[in-house]
């Protein structure tokens, strides 16, 4: 049992049934007419504590898992003939035949198996002969519940329980028309909700479920065609040359695969996957992602691994919900709770209204005792009249109203090419205070132009050669031509834009093996050839000698963490085996022999980087002076580090990367809106600073201070220094000094700062604008550290190396051609950052709209509550049809119209509030309520003081006194109060267009194919949705 994982971030407690508690709960459920069962349905943890007692996990019948949303999971038992490992089995005798019980439970699709010796439930990742039994079928099975079960769960939702209670109360209180209308709408809403939930479940199941026939190789060497459901970790998978849609995660063992991973990363450029190297370390899909094929990705082609050079061979590493696609589906089924103050305060606000309802109930009871003592009223009528206040003070649509603005914003974003898979994040966009941007492909253009090449050696650097074709034949030219992962798809080169430009600049052509590849293999000494680079037939006249074709026999793909890639090549006949390396100049120089690096290396790199040029370094070394087939093969089995050490420095390749024209405009817009912008890149720090100045993140007159931190070593202690960009002088104190300054730090210094100087980290983060040479995990760490400083952090990247940071950020935006990907909550089809201010404006508009609608629904309930209590004071009430008119026609129309206004055209420096429990909100609501009460009382007193006033019949109560002048005056005024409050709470400037824009419906839907459904969605939410974002 080598690889096993305990429950990640879960507190697991075991419980077993207690018979007397179980029967006591059943008796209490009968006596409470099922109310106790409903409470247990809402609070599963309470149900477990009431019916069970704590016990060791080994004896448990029920598991309580925390801190994730509480749920209890019953055990599953499967019969297994035998197991090689006694560690996870319980052997029993059944009919004198020994059987083994495999004890496990499923949680979020993952199977946790009981290990008795460890005393815990663990995720198993080892490979054994019974792995299929342990892992189960290779299916990402999304449960599609029956309509009966969905109906049962929907009706037991607190919202619908409250609706049933309210409808019953209204019928008893003779509000027949109103109760019937609510009942009909509730039935329709339940039907629509069930249909949509089931439809979404079916859609998700069809998307998640992937069953196909695959070829696997048995231990005997026999290949067998099986269903992908039968795959288990450890199976040897044969990938055909034409590729396939992969049904599992697998590590590539032989051959190369061209993979489209846009679903996972948002990266539109296919990625070349290379075989996993032999090593003693433990395999991890995160660190070995360039050798891992992920479930759900499309394998475009495979080559070099099967018989005749076609296809590839991989080993299955994960199946079902353990795969990358399973993780995507799990994130959709079980989304992380959104920690946003607005959503938290909305629940607290409901408690305040509940307290108001309690006070109103007491007041109404006192009125009944004081004024209706002479009238024969039953206790049932007294209770009904008192509880009626609760259904008025706590409107069912209050909690759901906050989603109306979000739905409108989501539709507008979709019409402009921005797709959202997490609607609650839209409101969070309105509170973003800092936005991080990747550099290459985000702020700058994807494509680069080769600006020149400069060879280097012990004697120094040569003159800059603007065209690599003019280089003399030698290692430098060969390295530029072959040190890449460019591949051919249907005869067209495909790969990273930088590498495509590099190969194109040399004029060399790429060829790949055809058929069984024996022709090329024989040409290059019998080696397994991955690709051949041939020089142009017509060499420049300046060259005295000609270049020869080289064959790539091994690739070590680029890694952001390693900041380099390398290849091993051979010449014709299999001789002259060379290893070439390409990467960041600092990394390449550190892996070269010191005597081969020019003395002017640092100054040249500083000069080019300061001009904003992208600089790459190249190096090489002979694999062996007497290279033969065995030597080469032995080299290829080495660890990557053995190949990439003691290199000889070749020179620098300088590329020009232009800033996108939209970048400076957007950064300036964000700066004027007092939104802080930060660059997070894997490029050189000087290049990053130059780009930051070009796009406006750093003013040209602002000073840049470099933060240099070194870790502890055997020869030195950790140090932290601050130096100016131009003069390089060390600054002993950073603070107010009469000029604006920005801090810039690279990945190594950032790591040392976090490890050895954590007390300085917040100070640096508050003023740092450029983070360079950052590895993907460091980008994620940076986002989390900024969030600790109470920033609402946004992240915009191309989705390739930024996936972790995009997921960790409060608002992640991936620039991708895919409609949606797991890389981030938002995906933009535009290839520039112009979507960022659009997203922030929509987020602010949505937040303001949600805020306004929430306040309006609360005000509406208070207006109606005041009207009801005022009329009860004079022995009358609102009629059935008056309630119907107010709730369905007046308030609903106003609420829908209020949410339709679009965002302002400009970003304002201020950000909207997200707190419902603040003094301005509660204070204004108290003042508005006071004015409402005074207005209704004034209307009542003015009416009763008129000469034409006809007094109410004091011998009747409630509906028996209708119509009357008191009711007419208060009802008429309350109608105007609804309209006035809608205008008062609909805040437009500065984040939303004025109120009169709300009626321009055609503007909103002209590019969105929503039709009637788009118009009815807000109406359905106001009366049908139990709680925001409850769909799958």
From TrEMBL:
Name recorded for this polypeptide: ATPase cation transporting 13A2
Domain P5B-type ATPase N-terminal residues, every copy: 11-114
Superkingdom of the source species: Eukaryota
GO terms for biological process, alphabetical: autophagosome-lysosome fusion; intracellular calcium ion homeostasis; regulation of autophagosome size; regulation of mitochondrion organization
Places the protein is found: Membrane
Signal peptide: none
Organism: Sander lucioperca
The P-type ATPase A domain, residue ranges: 213-331
Xref: InterPro entries: ATPase_P-typ_cyto_dom_N (IPR023299), ATPase_P-typ_P_site (IPR018303), ATPase_P-typ_TM_dom_sf (IPR023298), ATPase_P-typ_transduc_dom_A_sf (IPR008250), ATPase_P-type_domA (IPR059000), HAD-like_sf (IPR036412), HAD_sf (IPR023214), P-type_TPase_V (IPR006544)
Gene3D superfamilies with a match to the protein in the record: Calcium-transporting ATPase, cytoplasmic domain N, Calcium-transporting ATPase, cytoplasmic transduction domain A, HAD superfamily/HAD-like
Record field: transmembrane: 20-42, 177-197, 853-872, 884-901, 921-942
Recorded topology in the membrane: Multi-pass membrane protein
Alphabetical keyword list: ATP-binding, Magnesium, Membrane, Metal-binding, Nucleotide-binding, Translocase, Transmembrane, Transmembrane helix
Pfam family, one: P5-ATPase
